[in-house]
Each structure stands twice: as structure tokens, then as C-alpha cells.
User: Fold these one by one.
Assistant:
Number 1:
Amino acid sequence: KSSVQTIGEEQIQNPYTELLVLKGHQDIIRFLVQIDDYRFASAGDDGIIFLWNAQTGEKLYELHGHTHKITAIAPFSSSDVTEEKTDLIITASADRTVIVWDCTSGRQVQKVSCFHSTVKCLTVLQRLNVWLSGGSDLCVWNRKLDLLCKTSHLTDAGINALVELPKNCVAAAVGKELIIFRLSASNNGSEGWNILEVMRLVDHQDNISSLVSVNDLTFVTGSHIGELIVWDALDWTKQASECNFWDSSVHPDVQPEIKLSQSPHETSVQHLTSDEECVFAAVGKGIYVYNLQMKRVIACQRTAHDSSVLHIEKLPNRQLISCSEDGSVRIWELREKQQLPAEPVPTGFFNMWGFGRANKQANQAAKMHENTPVYFLELVGDLIGHSSAVQMFLYFGELGLATCSADHLIILWKDGERESSLRSLTLFKKLAQNGDLQLKL
């Protein structure tokens, strides 16, 4: 029997009672990016990019230019004082090309085909008005896709994630390593740039699978075996961590048992997101809330879905949304629960999974956190509409939620009450206009 929490037909706190199904893609849709308050782009394995209106579901443009699947996508708004603001998106593909698109006209602005390997990630540094592309090397581009500088060949595996850091630095995940690079303008007065490797951090025991920036002081990384490391964004020192599940120094006697019961797939950190207070981690089938000040997990749902959780986001209120390989999208609310005085507070991932630390440590932790609140994640909504893995989603506030899936569909989930009110308002305006017409006649 599945241990996944369920919710009945009566989902009182779930506003998404209407849905719009958007068709057009011919293969798995892996990416959604927000362009502005009402537009977004979708891309995936068919190599086509679609631009959509999030309010109406109208297809605005269909962008053709790649011959293989899309591997990365990023939005970029130019803010030059000399010219009008333009909304651009940049896409990378397995055909080893990168294209810049104008979202207003739907036209191709620039295309580059000089890559030796597939670009796996794209990052925009708005402050410097440049793009970064990560593959077997790291390249820096201006808005017109002129190559400003690049690193030497790093690795065949390539960079799989990038995150911007203060002081013109970036962190690149390359296998188990985290490489810190610094960008600087050339001193000779030309428009040239330099990119310098500053440091290599080798604290992870397995490949880094997720990176997230918390603020200008902190960023967090997660690996395939469930390691979570909190880093100082200024000096790149390790601030805190949750040890991986097979750390033999903690429980050497149960090491083989843990290895048998937990496969790396079940403990992999698929996605990280954050607010100023907490990091929210999609780990295997579960979701975890890690408090940065307390340096511990304060709430978890070990089996939030029947399959791996692929994407997680924190909403402006105390809610989280998660989506999974099982095709479901779920809404959770972080709630405080009354703690019994004698109840020891879990100190991290280990306790969440039932592998406690030594009694002495547990007792110390219990005393330390005796007066701190304990939280739990309550399931408040279950959105069933996709027939295959939901890859990711975008939250558009009152316009609703957009989800994309391996079933080739995008679904816009709408607040039923709001949509009904809007329809009534439109009808009322039409009736009022008709009444005015009749009066004039």
C-alpha cells in the first residue's frame, strides 16, 4: 500500500478548479520560462519553442530554428538607456547551436553554431549585461552573441548547472566539483573580458545535481546521494551541510543495510528553491524544508509523490507546489504543530529517514531546540490532469499555474472563482453596452 498522503474530492483550499489544455508540442516539454507578467515560453525535445499568453492560453508564436531537442532556455530583458526595452529569450540545443529570439516579434535575432559540445545551461548576468553558456567549457557572450571570452576545455561531462554569485563571480557544477569563476573587463580599454578560475570546491561525494542562490550572502548545492551543502557566497566556505545517507562515520554497523534500502535515485536532490529563511529540496519522492538559521530540516514529507519529485516552488504565502514523474501536481501548506516537551526534534535528513544520530547528540539537539516550533507539510491540493511525468511549472499569481509534461501538453490551471467573476463582469459590460445602444436607438 502506498504511504503517499491523499486528499479527497473536497479540496477546499485548492483554488485551481478550471484548466486550459494547450497543444502544439510533438514531444516531451521540459522547460517553461516566464517572459513577463502574462507571457511565457515552452520548449522541449521537439526542438520548437512556443510563446503563450498565460491569461488566455493563446499561442503567440511558434519558433523554429533548432534541429534537435532544447537543452537550456533563459529569458533576458535588455535595459539599455539608449534603446527601448526588448524581451529576449536564448535557447540552446543538442544540435550544438544557441539562438537569441525576440519575444515581441517572434523573430530570430542571432544564431551561433561554434560549439564543440552541447550547451547544458544558460545564465544571464543582468548587472554585466552578458550571457554565460555552460558545456564542456564556459563561454561569456554579449547580447548580440559576440563571444567575449571562454575557459579552456574543462571536462567531457561538462557544466550541468550555473549560479550567479556576488563580485562578478559564478559557481559552476562540474561532476562532483564546484568551480568558482570570476569575470573581469580587460584593462586595456577594449570591450574584451577575462574569465578566471578562482577555486575548486570538492566537498561533495557525488555529482552535483542542483544549485540555488539564496541571497547575496548564501547559495546551496545538492547532490545525487542526498547531500545538501550551504555555502558562503562571498568567500565560498562551507557554512552547514546535511550528510549523505551512506556516511559510514555516523553508523558504520548499519552501512550495508542503508545501501540496500536506499538507491541513489531515491535520495537524489532533483531540485532546490529558496526564500530568505529556508531551502526547499525535492529529494527522491519527498520534499524537505531546511531552515538556514537553525541549520536543520524543520519539516518533511518523505513520500510526497509516488515517483521522483522533479520540481518544487515556494509560493508567496506559506504554501509549496511540487510536481512529479507520477504525473501529479500537489499543493502543500507549511503549518506549525504543537510539540510535546519530551519529543526530541529531528536534527536533519538522517532522523527524517529514521537513521538517528548517537543518543548524546540527539539529547543535545532536543535541549537546544526544545522551545523552537516544529512544522509539518499538509496536503491542501492535488491537481490531476497530466497523463505522464510533469517536468516543471510556473506560478503566475492570480493568473494561475502553468505545467508542462512528457504527455506533450501544457495545462493552465485557473482559479475557478476568479474566472467565473471575470466572465460575469464581461457579460455585465456587454449587457450594459447593449442597453446603451437600445436607449440611443
Note: The chain has a mean pLDDT of 82.
Number 2:
Amino acid sequence: MLQTVWVSSPGSWALKKPGCHRDGKQINWKCGLVRTIIQHPCPRHYPKGRRKARMLRKIQICLCFFFISGILYEISLLSGCFFSYMPMSKHFLTPEQVLNLGKSIIFLETTERLEPTPLVSCSVESAARIYQDRPIILFMKGLTNDTALDFNSSYAAFSLLSSMKNVFIFPLQMETIFHETPLLQWYNQVDPEQEKNWVHVSSDASRLALIWKYGGIYMDTDVISIRPIPEDSFLAAQKSRFSSNGIFGFPAHHKFIWDCMENFVLKYNGNIWGNQGPFLMTRMLKTICNLTDFKGTEDHSCQNISFLNPQRFYPIPYPAWSRYYQVWNKSPSFNHSYALHLWNFMNNNRKTVVAGSNTLAEKLYKAYCPTTYEDLIQNAELRDLTLSEDAV
């Protein structure tokens, strides 16, 4: 749109029709940039008029710069270009702003722990590397809005994860998450002190509410990502006819997730481990699908929900979980897997990755979370060795 402004005399401004010529200056405006055409019917006004034109030009260029910068910033948020900015810029965003970017990968820590374990760090890092154009969010119950933790934190894993451009760490505020869902009334009535499985039950509820509200993929903090999941609406089969809730993905406001939240409340029994988790997902899936055994590496589909083969995430079943911490003569390729669940719940002996052990888990760390491996495992052991030698 072209608009013509005439200055008939210094300090006097009036809008005139384009093409109307009088003494003074003609200034054409377009996209906030200024083009001046100077006429000199009165030479004594020339120097002062030119200074005004220059000043006006500078003002308009500045305004145009801020306007264009704002547009580019909004576009960058939608396009994923945001993650090319410096890490500090992300600390000004709220959980809602990040979640509203869409297609988040969500992790939950429902204990009070503030220092992520190497396995948690590996899970988050591997997701950040595989899904570089998507927000990776770790919600931690131990955090509060007043907790001053960033990439300069004394917690090594926290510092490591905070420095990754697409990783965001936020406090887990359950009441806010459950707002406007069937879970809020349950949450206000339940007594966490009387719940023997509260850490797991509260996690089961939180993941449902977050995926319902914002969509994306939920992953347990012992899941190592190895390639992108191509599905938008999916459940992960732990075995034939049985669904896990350790990893699943849906668009926002999907009916299946809403139905799961309603059933969560209706059939609530916190004394039975998994009743609000994998058993919930399985019984809800059975209400809409005729589940059959898997053959080979095929996936099943029902009502636009993909029920993914156990090979996708559970090529090593939970009875054999310790094989991740053993040395293999020939490591498996996992060519049919999108991610690997390391069954940390079964790891009562707290087996860990040890540098130089050549276990399957160590090889996975090196391949899919190399920063975690180097900073939290290899360097930590070197520091411990140095301290031991100094003590001697």
C-alpha cells in the first residue's frame, strides 16, 4: 500500500492526494521504509528539511527492523528454527509455550530427585539427537519455580541437559496439568501418603493429561531412542495382546486418551501396580480392537491407532532385562526398533554402565548419548581414579 505525505512547511504536516505537487517535500511510505524526493522552491529551508527527512528515515527503518524481527521470531517458533538460537533464550519460555509448539517428546521424573541419573540423561540426550526439530521436555517434581538450576548447575547431568538447544526442564506441577481433565477431582481426593505406588500412579496420570492437552510422544526415562518413530497415534506392544504405557504418542485431544483418563478414575486401584498404567492401556485398547498375536515384525492397526510390534521398543523382553548389562559376542542390530526400553524398574541391583566394560548398554550409550557417556561416565571414573591416587 502506497501512501503519500506532503510537508508544505516546516512543522506542518497534511495528507494529500498522490501526484499533487506543492512546495515542500514529498515522502512516500512503503513497508515502513522511507523514500524522499526533495524539491527546492525555497532554498533557505533545505538544510533543516533534509535533517528532518534523515531523522524520519532512521525512525522508520528502526520500526521496520523491529516489525520484521518479530515476524521472523514467530515463524522460527513454528518452523523449528527456534532451536538454532543460543541456549539461554529458551529459559524465558513457559511450559505452555514450549508444549504449544507441538510434537513434544515428554519425560517425567515423579520422585524428588534433582540430579538425573546417567540413564535418564542418556534417554533425554538420545531423544534430543534423534528429534532435533522437536522440543524435548523433562518435567521434574523436585523442581519448583524458585529452583535456580541451569547449565551452570553443580549437578552434572542437569548442566549437560540444560545446555542442549532443544531440551527444556520444567517443574512438574500436577494440579496445573490435571486442570480441565477427569483427573483433577481424583487428584484432589487422593492422599499420596496412603498410596504405596504413588510415584508410578502419579506418573501414569501425568503422562495421560499432558498428551491429552498438548499431544506428542511420552517416553519413560529408561528409553533410549535410536531412530524416529514414524507414527502419530500409537501404542507400544510389550508382548502380543498387551500394551505398555512406557511409550505412546497421540495428537492433542485424542478421544482414546480422554477415555483412558475417565477409566483411570472409574477403575482406580492404587494398590495394584500397573492398574493405572499398562493394564489401563490394554483394557481400553481391547474395548475398540480385536487384539491378535503378532507375526514376524508386523504392526497392527485399529481405528487409526497403530499397535506397534514388540520389536519396536522391547526386542529384549523384561525377563531378560539384565542382558543389556552383559557382554555380547555379537551385538544385535535392532534394525526393527525405534527405541529400546532398558527395564530400569527391574534393575533392583542398580546395575550401571561402566566405562570399558564392553557391555551392550555401554555400546548403546556410546552410539546414542555420547555426551552423557563421556561427561557422566568416562570422565567421572577418571576423576574418581585421580582422587583415589591423590588420597594414597
Note: Residues 1-46, 71-81 have pLDDT under 50 and may be disordered.
Number 3:
Amino acid sequence: GWLEAVTQQMGYHPQYLDSFLKMQHYLMHMDGPLPFDCRHYIAIMAAARHQCRYLVNLHVLQFLRAGGDPQWLRGLEFIPPKLRNLNEINKILAHRPWLITKEHIEKLLKISEWSWSLAELVHAVVLLAHCHALASFVFGCGCEQDEGLGGRGSLKPLSLGNQCFCEATAGNSYSQELLRINRKRSLDSCMELDSLRERMQRIHVETEGRDEMRLLQQDREEGEGQGAEVGMQGGTEHCSDPSAGLSPLADTDGEVTGATNLACYMQDPDFGYQDFARRDEDQTQVFRVQDYSWEDHGFSLVNRLYSDIGHLLDEKFRMVDGLQSSAMAKRQGCEPSVFKRGIWNYIHCMFGIRYDDYDYAEVNQLLERMLKVYIKTVTCYPEKTNSEMFDRFWKQFKHSEKVHVNLLILEARMQAELLYALQAITQYMI
């Protein structure tokens, strides 16, 4: 189902899950500046930066259901230049958001056939930050798996005794509504499956036909020019195999498999996180929250350019801040608010965001080494998260506390990316 593994983990904190689903639904499915197919394609581009097959597969299906052009699934070379131009800030926001500048914004907004409007760009930025942060949660909670959409996870799905997730939350009116929606979606999916399968098979047949013609053409060219270098060999940054990215094909059981080659959805795959270094002060300035904060600056800007999204984001930030973690904090010998702030500020510190009223010596006192290693990995390069990290770090935490840590990572990371992007947009506007 749509984000089923994610919502099962978030189900340990139902109030947060409620705010998350409202924001997710508004961002992907309600009226907004961007067309629905473009929203899902942007999500694919964002998730691919972290090799998050789980999210890419889900958004490939949603992209097709929204009427997206199947050719786009062959990679960035096959999408409109306007969307492809988003690749640079996708890359920067995902790995080194402090590098984004007003020049990046200006380049996208400049008057041309492929220019973005401010409203469209804000929608895209929120989508990118949301999907990058959600990829951290997916890897952090073990929702990512090798094959299919169901699956294996490093953290086991919610189970209370012999109860399943559905039964355990039966007393919660929101959860009842969620179950009703999920059942309806399951029925809708069944009804859609036949037409989707036909469409995928048609794409497969068309692609095979084109590939056959391409191979014949290549054979002719090789026959005519033996000994000459092949100009296209390894010459593309995306996928050299024209059908490599077009792999969401329905198998005989009706299961739809996802993109096998995530590299075709990104450029510069070697660009990744690097420690925010103070020694580069001439190039990179520390981001001081008293100069530009979510509450005083980011919220009003994003809400003005993309109506109501600011309220939904703000509710989510407040909800994660209000989650109870008394047992988790008690084991660290501090108040819950102090422990949560330590995690939040540590994450922001890794992205060069500093709070003048915070003593950063507290981070080392509150967070033991393995917890810091885990948080940094899930935040900065989630695709490197492995089972050994779970085994060494998770021992003293309850399952709901593990999810809580991952929710803090999700929200702190998302806010960090938004702060840098919105500040750059503000500087462009000024």
C-alpha cells in the first residue's frame, strides 16, 4: 500500500502520524502550483539521491496513476528541461544545503521558455526537502528493502502481543478512519491494477520494438565503420541503456516492480555529504538562527507563496517537539525537552546551523558515541545505514523510542533544508 511500512512505524505516535499524513496528502494530492505528475517525478528525483528504492518505486506507480508520461521513467534525459533544471538544487539540498545561493534561485526563475514561477519553486523545494528527509526515516526505520514494496525491515512492524497494527489502534477514531481509507485504497488499487498492467505491458512492447530498431541501427553503423570509436559508448551521465530506467513492468502475478536503475534519475552521483567545515569560513558562513528562523521568516514566506503549506509544516514541527520521551531522557539523566533539543541541535549543527543560546558541550554529554554515529549516518547518508548500527545502538531503547529518534531526524533535517532554500529565495526577492 501507499507508504504502508512508513505509516506502520509512525503509528507508534498517532498524533504525529495524523499531522504527517495531512501534510503529505496536501503536498502530493491537493491543489497547488505544480501538476500532479510533476510532483511525483520530483519525489522520484529526490529519493534517488539517497538510492531509496522504496520511495522511488512508490512514486513511479503514483506518477503513472497521475497520467505521467512513461518515457520520463527512462531517466533525466527524457524529461522536459524545466524539470531537469531542478537537478542542481536537488543535489545540493540533499547533501550540502549550505551551498545553495540566490544565484541558484535566479537561474531557475530567469525569463525563458523553461522558467519556474516563485510559487512553483517553493512547492518543488518543499517536495525535495520532504522526500530527502523521508528517505532518512525509511532507512532509519528499516522500511527500505531489497525487493518489492512489502517487506523486510530492520525494525519489526508494529505488533502488540498477538494484535496487529489495525487491532491495536482500534480504539483510536483517527486510526479507524485511516483503516477505512486504506481499505478503500486497496479496492481502488485492485480496480486500477488491470488497466495499469495493460498499460505497462503496452509500454514494454513499445520499448522492446524501439530497442530492436536501435540494435539493428547499431549493427548497421558498426558494419559500416569498423575500427572507428563508438561515440556513444559510456557517453551519457544517465542511463546508456535506453530501457534501463523503464522497468516498472507488471509481472504475471500483477505485482508491479520498480525502477532497477536509480542512477538514471540523477546526475553527479559522486556528490555527497561533506562535513560542514569551519575552516572554510571564507566560502561558507555559519547559518545563525537568530538571523533567519522558521518561526520568524521561513513560515511566512512559504505560506505566502504556497497557501496553507506553512501551517501544515508548522503543525508537524510542533507535533514532533511535543512527543513524550520521558523514559528515553531518563536513561540519559536529563529532562525530555533537554534530550530532544540535544538531538535536534546536533542534526542542525551537522548542516552548519547554530543557535547562539545553546551550549554545544551538552551534545557530547547527552548523546553517547554510538547514538551520535547512528544519527549522523541516518541524517547525512541514510543509504549507508546497516544492521550493525541497529544492533549496537538500539539496545537500551524501546521500539517507540527508536521511531521517535527517527522522527526527530526527519523533521530536523527537513527544517534545515527548508531554512537554506527559503533564505536563498528571500535573498533573491530582496
Note: The two ends are 44 Å apart (CA to CA).
